[in-house]
Amino acid sequence: MTPYSDRRARLIDRMGSGVAVIATAPERTRNRDTHYGYRHDSYFYYLTGFSEPEAVLVLIAGDVPRSILFCREKNEEREIWDGWRCGPGAARERYGFDEAFTSAELDAKLPELIADQPSLHYVIGEDAAWDARMMTALNAVRAQSRAGRFAPSRLFDIRQPLDDMRLIKDLHEQSLMRRAADISTRAHRRAMQATRAGAMEYEIEAELLHEFRRSGSEAPAYGSIVAGGANACVLHYVSNDAELRDGDLLLIDAGCELGGYASDITRTWPVNGRFSGAQRDVYQLVLDSQDAAFEKVRAGARFIDYHDAAVRVLAQGFVDLKLLEGSVDSVIEQGSYRRFYMHRTGHWLGMDVHDAGEYRPAPGGAGAGEQDWRRLEAGMVLTVEPGCYIRPSDDVPEAFWNIGIRIEDDVIVEADGCDIYTTAAPKTIADIEAVMQDARG
């Protein structure tokens, strides 16, 4: 049994009865008659491993469970223009489906597949065209009521059970994510070695992309952030078109996607290879806050616990550096620390860089715990990414102006702690300065 067929079987078991319909992502036009590079829907791929567009998975739960794929037909002319197609016959054999048909047959077969089923499961509300398509199929079944057929009386969003399944990474997923992390750590080291005053941010971005592709990654997992100087204080900076200046820091938030799984790493280093006094103080503070957060990542802990640990260290540091006034408790209680640290310390990571899964499940739901924060479980993968962003202000010493620092690693939760996938990307002050000095000869 493949990981994908095992997941289909587990989802069918969770459903108990009824029929699920999960479509992959459509192709998107970039301009005129060209398309964006195609990327499958994560839910669909999680269950199939099938990466072609125009595909739909139908799962039927009950006494005789069935998995059915609808995909593009074999077409020699289209393959000459667009490339190889698997086709229903090969797809059924290769991917372990019980049945397979062409995409053109879906609308005709769908009413028959959902007829006399107690429930219909699909991604509700994501796409108006798909909602309309499901309603058309339901109405086609309702029209047969005088013939003794009945339509599903209950609709469920298939994302809820899939989100819970996707939160725990199996061994196949863990292997892919480790490999993605390895590629991305090499890319960050390469970017670090290439950094110099006078270079453009996009030149350093090109070093990342080069390492991603040469190592087998399909694409960046998200738009790379390559932010020098004041740009590092913009959390989602994407222009990547400024010149790097001597004395500034460079923040890079970038990771590749491999086999449909994301990595997500942030490192910050001095453009000239040496941290200034203020830069060194703030950098070490952020690094210490990350270490405190790592200590709280373990099975049984609440998702919020490692964020709280990072915040306490940062708040103490902001007071010690005279960036904020008051006691650490008051800085936290009043939220004044958010002036310099305004985001959470991490998120789920997997097929999507901000991966599926609730952080505060509904009371009584799966993973719910104290204050409804989800309890961590072994096999969950998440990021740990504290930061500090100091914009110019009359009440801030000038030495701290435009210091933007984030340090982000990918970790998997274990019973007694966590395993950090991304430690190979230089992170301590000594290691960063050594790598950059070595690159300069």
The CATH fourth-level homologous superfamily of the largest domain: Creatinase/methionine aminopeptidase superfamily
Q: What summary fits the major beta sheet?
A: 6 strands, mixed
Q: How many E strands?
A: 19
Supply the CATH architecture of the largest domain. Answer: Alpha-Beta Complex
- Report the β-strand fraction as a percent range: 15-25%
* Rg for CA atoms: 25 Å
CA-to-CA gap between the ends? Answer: 53 Å
* CATH topology call of the largest domain: Creatine Amidinohydrolase
Q: What would the principal axes of the Cα set say about the shape?
A: elongated
Unreliable spans = none
Give the total of domains: 2
How are the strands of the biggest sheet laid out side by side?
6-5-4-1-7-8
The amount of helix comes to 25-40%
Number of helices: 13
Structural class computed from helices and strand pairing: alpha+beta
